[in-house]
Write a structure and sequence with these properties.
P-loop_NTPase; six-stranded mixed sheet; transport; alpha/beta; ATP hydrolysis activity; about 260 residues; ATP-binding; Rossmann fold
Amino acid sequence: MAEAQIVLKGVGKTFVRGLQRTTALAGVDIEIARGAFVAVVGPSGCGKSTLLRLVSGLVMPSEGSVRVAGEPVVGPRADTGIVFQKATLVDWRDILGNVLLQLEMRGIDGPEARERARTLLTAVGLGGFENRYPHELSGGMQQRAAIARGLVHQPGMLLMDEPFGALDALTREQMRLDLEALWLRERMTVFFITHSIDEAVLLADRVIVMSQRPGTVDHVFDVDLPRPRGLAARNDPRFAALTDAITRIFLSRGVLDEQRLAL
């Protein structure tokens, strides 16, 4: 097995607001190899986004430990890229400027930096749109720019919190194909949060299934589908078997109601 990039041991997180305590995660153990693509799927409110924020160093665990590249996470790391559900681009900068902002904040500038930004924009399908402004682009195109921004500083790890959740079905499918191609090229570690069982299986090497709150690891599935996984991947019997197995876990836990699904 490759060297572990992300290791969580006995991780719990409780949020306190006044007298109210909400335990989002409890007893989470996860180990992710360097260069792996791992997806996390689970019901709303199970702590998926909290898990990503713990790995990123944006919040600290209430118990247990989080380590990245062998070091304890004590705050945001320079070797991490993050893509959220909304692109959160800066309105007054063009698309190239938005991508370069990531580098400027790190004190990185020069021809090589600009060339990498342009190369990434081309790789995500935005070649020729460098001088456009966010309001001139569709939601899917804005999210492509956000992915380029998350990768421009060449992070060893990319954290993605439901990055395709607000997109229409066709755009989402194309983004899935493009993200896989980008990962095959860059080979960074990807920690991908999603509500979509199909999306998790189509993208990941491993799928972590979370329980209801307080979230913990319910099951882990290895995905044995050849890459690249094009549009035909859904026709593979292994895809059907895995999505069915995950769906049945949610049915057995009461997360999904089969009678309501049949209506």
